[in-house]
Write a structure and sequence with these properties.
The chain has 395 residues and is of the alpha/beta class. It is built from 18 helices and 15 strands. The chain is 38% helix and 16% strand.
Length: 395
């Protein structure tokens, strides 16, 4: 296992006081690349410890979302917990939080206090609706962002209700945005010598991810239709049942790919139609396009479909369940899933780091820790001078 000192963020200390998913996921991404992430939890523990599936009393999502972190128990509402936190923050590079706006200020550890004790600190604040505006004080979770961004309205079948994703998509995406915002702020600090506040709203993260829906409505007055697994931009694009009752996904956004698909399924005549030369034209005739692809696939087993598509360099993928992911030879060759030793579980399989750097690749060094596992060691290592937040210096 790679030594954290050799990782690219080994000189960055992150204090993660966020709960549940978006903020902690951002901190985990930084920890994957070597940041020293100190997870500060209330004595009752992060609510994520009581969320989702458990194995022999151990929360499994916790092990993933809080990997590469040290757990420290502090009650920031109490003077002693506040003082310990300020000592940590005085020596840190980043603090990540996701409480409602005004919460840190009420506890006496708001951005003005943090700036006085550590002008180089980056404070990343992840909330549902941002730090200001009419909705700032509302509780905000990923589901609300998926609803209000337009994602749910465009998801689902034409005759069905709006559909939410079956996993915390908005939280995960906002976590990526928060990690990126943190890195941009750290880069800026390298130029200016000063930290700043990064205000990350989960709703805005999702709105920004949904492509051209805003300019399309602005200029054309069109709203995205719910089209199930079809696409409003290209055809063929759908999921198809094979003869062995397994499924594949097909997408042909490029003209050349659509051409190859239709020739493969025995409909070269469609390629000669004038409308076939654009995505818009194919969408307007997607019933005939989709029927041709569906009929051809339904007559063949999944392995045969994938093999023949690949032979003509057309885009296809089998619809995987989680056990398929574990068996896939490509994912195995690239170590997409890794097995991490763990004191509570013996070992636990989880996804590897999300991207690869050629010179300084990240690593998962341990899974999510026990509650308060590192409290004593972390607090003993902090400079034992009390911090006077009013004066902005140690005394």
């Amino acid at each position: 296992m790679e030594d954290a000192l050799n990782l690219p963020l080994a000189d960055v200390t992150v204090i993660d006081i966020a709960t549940l998913l978006a903020g902690p996921f951002a901190a985990a991404l930084l920890g994957d690349y070597g940041a020293d992430v100190i997870k500060v939890e209330h004595p009752s523990g992060d609510p994520l410890r009581r969320f989702g599936h458990v194995y022999e009393g151990v929360p499994l999502l916790w092990k993933v979302a809080n990997r590469n972190k040290k757990s420290v128990v502090l009650d920031l509402k109490k003077p002693e917990g506040r003082d310990h936190f300020l000592r940590l923050a005085a020596q840190a590079d980043v603090v990540i939080e996701n409480f409602r706006p005004g919460t840190l200020e009420r506890w006496g550890v708001g951005p003005d206090v943090l700036e006085r004790i550590n002008p180089r600190l980056v404070l990343t604040r992840v909330t549902g609706f941002g730090q200001d505006g009419p909705y700032a004080s509302r509780p905000g979770f990923g589901t609300l962002a998926e609803a209000m961004s337009g994602l749910a309205a465009m998801s689902g079948d034409p005759d069905g209700p709006p559909m939410l994703p079956p996993f915390p998509l908005a939280d995960a995406f906002a976590g990526v945005q928060a990690a990126y915002a943190t890195m941009v702020a750290l880069h800026s600090r390298g130029l200016t010598g000063r930290g700043q506040v990064a205000d990350v709203a989960i709703t805005e993260s999702m709105i920004g991810a949904l492509g051209a829906q805003l300019p399309v409505y602005d200029k054309l007055g069109l709203k995205p239709d719910r089209v199930g697994n079809l696409s409003n931009s290209n055809a063929p694009r759908n999921v198809y049942r094979c003869a062995d009752d397994r499924w594949v996904a097909v997408s042909a956004p490029a003209q050349s790919v659509a051409d190859r698909v239709m020739r493969l399924v025995g409909r070269p005549d469609l390629v000669e139609e004038a409308w076939f030369s654009s995505g818009t034209g194919r969408v307007a005739h997607r019933d005939v396009v989709d029927e041709a692809v569906s009929r051809w696939i339904a007559e063949r087993n999944r392995d045969e479909v994938v093999s023949e598509f690949e032979a003509v360099e057309a885009a296809v993928a089998p619809i995987y369940e989680v056990d398929d992911v574990l068996r896939d030879p490509h994912f195995r060759a690239r170590n997409v899933v890794i097995d991490i030793p763990d004191d509570e579980l013996g070992s636990v399989r989880m996804q590897n780091v999300p991207f690869r750097l050629s010179a300084t690749p990240g690593s998962v060094r341990w899974a999510g820790p026990r509650l308060g596992e590192h409290t004593e060691a972390v607090l003993e290592a902090v400079e034992p001078k009390p911090v006077d937040a009013d004066q902005g210096k140690a005394r």
